[in-house]
Automatic annotation (TrEMBL):
Top class in the EC scheme: transferase
UniProt keyword annotations, A-Z: ATP-binding, Kinase, Membrane, Nucleotide-binding, Phosphoprotein, Transferase, Transmembrane, Transmembrane helix, Two-component regulatory system
Family matches, as PROSITE patterns: HIS_KIN (PS50109)
Domain of life: Bacteria
Assigned EC number: 2.7.13.3
Designated name of the protein: histidine kinase
GO molecular function: ATP binding; identical protein binding; phosphorelay sensor kinase activity
InterPro entries (alphabetical): HATPase_C_sf, HATPase_dom, His_kinase_dom, HisK_dim/P_dom, HisK_dim/P_sf, PAS, PAS-like_dom_sf, PAS_fold_3
Species of provenance: Massilia arenae
Residue ranges of every copy of the Histidine kinase domain listed in the record: 263-482
Spans through the membrane: 12-41, 53-72, 84-104
Taxonomic classification: Bacteria, Pseudomonadati, Pseudomonadota, Betaproteobacteria, Burkholderiales
Catalytic activity: ATP + protein L-histidine = ADP + protein N-phospho-L-histidine
Amino acid sequence: MFQSPGSKLRAAGVVLLTLAIFAVDAFTALDIAIAVLYVVVVLCATSVWSRRGVLLTGVACAALTVGAFALTHHGVVSSPMARCLVSVAAIAITTVLALAGMAATDALRQRSESLRLSEAFLASTQRISRTSSFRFQAPGGAMHWSEEAARIYGVGLEVTPTQALVRERTHPDDWPLLDDVIAQSDRGEATIELRHRLRMPDGTVKHVHMIARLAAVHDGQFEYLGALMDVSAAHEAAETLHRTQAELAHATRVTTLGELAASIAHEVNQPLAAVSTNGNACLRWLNRPEPDLLEARLALDRILADTYRASEVIQRIRALARKGEAQRLPLDVNTLLRDTAALVQRELSNHRIVLELNLAPGLPPVAGDAVQLQQVVINLLMNAMQAIDGAAPEWLRRQQRIVLSTRLDGDQVEIEVADSGPGLSELQAGRLFEAFYTTKADGMGMGLAICRSIVEAHGGSIRAMVHAGPGATLAFTLPCAAVKVEDTSNAVTGAPA
Ligand code: ADP
């Protein structure tokens, strides 16, 4: 019944006040409405008891007023009776008002408690989902954000967010993107969105995704409400996936080589062993005091037969490797290149290399195996990227580019990969496609050899061009297919990848 433990003292005070009023009312001859003072008792009771207690207090006060009247006025006296009624009415009205006030206070307390709970709930879900909310006015107006936004930006909760602070935390490379969305919000665009990086004071980088919608417009000011998500974990996962895809594509050539080498070793080993045995026998026949030329000739015949067998085995394996299960379907080269560019895009942007697509529209289809041809293009792109990387460390060089272009050359489609790396010498260009030729510490020197074998199996040719100035250009041609395929390429000439 008591609202708080400390209110016991106040309760005693209220009781004493009640008794005092009753004593004065009942036992003194004062000709005034003393009982009206019970109103004070009722009001004091609101801070001591609950609503039920206040109601009982009101009832008790009214009863005491009537009791005191009965004690002091045995006959019917109109004026004291009127005073008694006024006092009872005042007590009743005060009690009702006090009860209504208490009910309103309780409702308000409940509402503020549920507001506090929902704020705590929102803060914890924002923390778990790493998503914060914010509000800002454009152009250049005030900004408010949730606790989680302060945490994402790595500033204290007491720090007032400003555009300058947002800019300071944004990775300098992404300032143009930020300026772009600020300009959009200054124009009052309905939705603004930005994926960018934040650079923390300790040098770590966070990837964030911001999206905001125009909520209101007053006095030429646009008010935006938005969400800011820390997507670093998702970004990291996507990076790993893309890295794995690129590595997988790169590893395919190693696997192909491994399988090829194992089968060659297996098939060729037998005739080679026979050649060696017959060679030794031939030497022995010739080294005799009286050389047996007939036997030596027979041994040499067997050597020739085994050599022929070995070369046949190799021919067969090469034929197998060329034809294999490779498909020959009509392909749109531009689509194939766009798909391939998408595969290596992340790897390229990690090395701050821009891939420019310069694709001739309306190319006829080529007949080929999409996977194999994609492997060729990935190889050329990876080589170009490694050449650029090897020339200077990433932090020293300006942004570099690789241009991937297509053109029609008679009845052939030519695909060209030109980079801004250190280029090729005449000597290098001559040896590039030799198996096991590499200038890289961890290179195998088989990538371009396999590329050549795939391109030639498609009836095309591959070459490296030596030109003045930096950069290397490798190009390959593929004959156009007889069948016409729907050309999905459009005028993307010059469009960045
Ligand atoms: P690997 O990449 O394992 O070395 P490759 O056959 O793919 O094998 O390449 C052979 C060599 O050709 C490379 O080691 C490199 O010296 C040279 N090369 C290939 N592409 C380029 C290029 N775009 N710029 C400069 N050199 C290149």
